[in-house]
């Protein structure tokens, strides 16, 4: 999702860039660059490219209102929250280079499609590891399926609220006609994320930074 800069006041755009820059720099600082294994780098870079490709399959109904799969939960589980935030920033920049969206609105766009879902996914993962049984199915159904659906719904709700507050579109249109599509898209987002994470943790668990065999399988 690339928001149209003309929909928002200049202070909003500046604040969006400022917050996004701070979050991205903090994420980059917290990544143990010299300790990353080749398998993790491969999964991280490959996941970022796949997310960018997913974003090309979109339906734009109005300027700044485009529907597409996010892939943010999957990338967060595969690479970790901080690498995913950087990967999603790269994907947004690459998408903008192709003429999809405005550079001035990238800060707000990143907060919506990267900051929110990566934070939600990481928080749900931490909660599940503390409160739920260390079970493989908990990881797949809660941290992959459920987190992906909730992320899509949260992004849709936040996007509609932001556009409504900015006066870009009438609130009745955004919440009555636009928001329901995000709830529908939550299901394919959850299904695709869950299926791919299931396959990865079975056949390539070394590519999934947030899955630990010793935690989910060996503690039985």
Query: Over all CA atoms, what is the radius of gyration?
Result: 17 Å
Decide which structural class fits the backbone: mainly alpha
Number of strands: 2
What CATH architecture label applies? Orthogonal Bundle
- Span of the ends, CA to CA: 42 Å
Query: Average pLDDT, to the nearest integer?
Result: 92
* Beta-strand residue fraction: under 5%
DSSP helical segment count? 8
The proportion of residues forming helix, as a percent range, comes to over 70%
Along the chain, the helix and strand elements come as HHEEHHHHHH
What fold name stands as the CATH topology? Arp2/3 complex 21 kDa subunit ARPC3
How can the largest sheet be summarized? 2 strands, antiparallel
Looking at the structure, what is the overall shape?
globular
How many domains, as an integer? Answer: 1
Topology (SSEs and partners):
Layout: H1 10-30, H2 38-56, E1 59-62, E2 65-67, H3 72-79, H4 81-97, H5 106-131, H6 136-166, H7 171-203, H8 213-216
Antiparallel strand pairs: 1-2
Helix pairs in contact: 1-4, 1-5, 2-3, 2-4, 3-4, 3-5, 3-6, 3-7, 4-5, 5-6, 6-7
């Amino acid at each position: 999702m690339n928001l149209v800069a003309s929909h928002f006041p200049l202070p909003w755009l500046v604040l969006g860039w400022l917050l996004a820059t701070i979050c991205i720099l903090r994420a980059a600082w917290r990544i143990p660059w010299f300790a990353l294994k080749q398998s993790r780098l491969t999964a991280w870079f490959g996941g970022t490219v796949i997310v960018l490709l997913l974003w090309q399959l979109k339906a734009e109904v109005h300027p700044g209102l485009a529907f597409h799969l996010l892939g943010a939960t999957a990338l967060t589980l595969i690479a970790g929250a901080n690498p995913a935030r950087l990967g999603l920033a790269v994907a947004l920049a690459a998408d903008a280079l192709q003429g999809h969206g405005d550079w001035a609105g990238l800060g707000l766009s990143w907060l919506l499609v990267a900051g929110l879902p990566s934070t939600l996914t990481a928080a749900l993962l931490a909660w599940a590891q503390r409160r739920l049984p260390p079970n493989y199915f908990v990881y797949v159904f809660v941290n992959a399926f459920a987190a992906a659906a909730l992320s899509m719904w949260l992004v849709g709700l936040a996007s509609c609220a932001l556009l409504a507050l900015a006066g870009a579109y009438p609130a009745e249109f955004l919440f009555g006609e636009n928001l329901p599509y995000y709830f529908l898209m939550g299901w394919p987002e959850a299904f695709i994320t869950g299926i791919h994470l299931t396959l990865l943790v079975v056949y390539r668990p070394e590519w999934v930074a947030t899955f630990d065999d010793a935690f989910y399988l060996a503690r039985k």
